[in-house]
Queue: 2 jobs
Job 1
Amino acid sequence: MKSPRILIVDDEPGIRSSLAGVLQDEGFTVHAVESGEEGLSELERVDYDLVLLDVWLPGIDGLEVLERIEAGVRAARPAVIMISGHGSIETAVRATKRGAFDFLEKPLTIAKVMVVVNNALAQRKLQREVRELKETGRERLQLIGDSVPLKALRQQIELMAATNGRVLIYGESGVGKELVAHAIHAQSLRASGPFVEVNCAAIPEDAIESELFGVSPGKTGKFEKADGGTLFLDEVGDMSLKTQAKVLRALDEQRIEPVGSVEPMQVDVRVIASTNKNLSEEISRGNFREDLFYRLNVIPFAVPPLRERAGDIPALAAHFLDEFSTAYGRKAKELTPEAVVVLQSHNWPGNVRELRNLMERMVIMYPQVRIDARHIPLTASRKSNEDEHPQYATLHEVRQAAERDYILRKLDEMGGNVSRTAEILGLERSNLYKKMRALGIAPRDPA
């Protein structure tokens, strides 16, 4: 295991020598310089985990060096501990406000130095692990594919995510509605806040109220946990009418009342909901509140089923094969062209989830590097015209969907050039921009 690298920046030779000796005895890799300029030069050359930085230096002083470190482009910045023989509360406050982990006064003691150094390195390690987990999470949650329907979905997310409007995501089971919710949150103004998920179909009826609003005392509800961030109500169509009424009140007032409490609690939550049901039909049957539907359906998103984006199947399958090969310590696998044909010919009633599960089975069951058509336990059944189509409530929605699809196709053919697309469609460019805005299509070419 590589030992942490520590840089000492101090103009006193005795301090440099004694600190370097102590830290090297503890197993750290240490380098020492006498000026801020030398320190910044060394930081450009080598990745350090920690900098012990004197405040009073000839030339560039320690606080300015600290500012430059914090303003650096590297994501993995070193932790910084400021040291000074002329310490003051004001200087310590300024240093910590500018990003220093801690402030040490001279004369230094070995015990104090080692406590602060170990704490700083532990915090930096934790920050790095959190950053790596976030990166892994973003990769795992990415929307994979380059089909026209998926491009349209990405454009709609880009256009609408930065607002605080409530979102209702429609789509069959397994299409990736959760991924869309994560993508909206990640591109929103609340991205640094929590993303809290509630599966309304999985929680028993007698428990969902306490799950959402908490219990007083002792249990924090999902609304409170999502304060300042996003609450994702997955499969909201399965929520009972009683719970729907309380959710409606929470959305209207941005306040919740934990079970057993009479004191309401203010919350700031953006709600994203999803459903695999036709909520218009559920409303007509008396199973879903119409007023709640209108609160949630401010920005509707429709996630296309996998059978309508067969062009994305090769990329999705390759992604899942890589994911599970890594997870199970197997050699990387690839699909033959014949295997891809079989996958693209399947109707995928379970959508992306079904494809993911199948690729996991392929990695576990077959030792071969190349997966051929004969290895795939699917019958190549061409999709017929009787396949399900998206459900629309009105003729206006059907017309909008058709216009959106046609405009996206033409934009794609023209490489995103709005002027050329408008010319082909027989429209003024300004009129096409208006129509694109109305249909939620983000322009790729401002010209």
Job 2
Amino acid sequence: MTISFGSRLVGPDQPPFIIAELSGNHNQDLQRGLAIVDAMAAAGAHAIKLQTYTADTMTLPGAYRIDDPASLWYGRELHELYQEAHTPWEWHQPLFERARQHGMLAFSSPFDETAVDFLETLDVPAYKIASFENTDWPLLRRVAATDKPVIMSTGASTLAEVAEAVQVLREAGCRELVLLKCTSTYPATPLNTNLRTLPHFQQLFPDTLVGLSDHTMGIGASVAAVALGACVIEKHVTLRRADGGVDSAFSLEPEEVAQLVTETERAWQALGQVQYGVQRAEEKSRLYKRSLYVAQDIAAGEVFTKDNLRVVRPGDGLPPRYFDQILGKPARQALQAGTPLTWEAL
């Protein structure tokens, strides 16, 4: 199965599709946002993704304060946090245009139906459904009605919720769907990433592609995900984590994104196919297989022993499996040390 995201093909037969998630790391500075797009393009990311919402479309003032001491946003009031993190809607067009100038795809995660209506005016090539929105059936139906590819994260979701969301999307017209394994902790850890879910996901939903929305530090989990079948990798990005920002702690810097692009493609290339036997590229290397060589000068009629016959490199002599069979047999002719043993010498 292959899906077209604009001009880019995504699927098992294509290199991994790397999405750079800008999120709120623009720090409410459009020029910084544009600089991140430039840096991600230079690093080789294939797409930039925004999040389209306002604080008022997400929650109500005073509705909730984060009280988990382990949270990156401990003590923050939710409406205030979203006000800081949101990408102003008037920034979308310049950010998208900058990405397109670099040959990158640009799209977004809408968080309500009005965001979909807005993104349609910008002719986005695809939509991303965030983990916490995958039970919003009206939003799923509105996105599916655009007839564009959909990428859906599955963090903090039961399998039943994922299956229901897939059914809602399909029934509403979604034909091209990617499911992302995701752990909705910020950051996630390798221990709670559970990448073995990926091939199982593919078995459960064979008419979808699978990928990883990776909130872990570094790129190791993403590289491993590709080895397990991930066609899409999404990572939060920033210029420098030291600059701060709502998601900066678990975001990749440009040099790390470049490594991510390179190493995930290497992992994909290395998958290859089931292969046994000697590959064409290995044919010259067969010279370095071991074989039977004369280790001491031998007179005609002298018998072969463990002293005058050795198993060594290169592979120009008889295969080592004949060693025991040849011991005790006489040499037909005189042989010099360093001579590969052949049947004619027996």
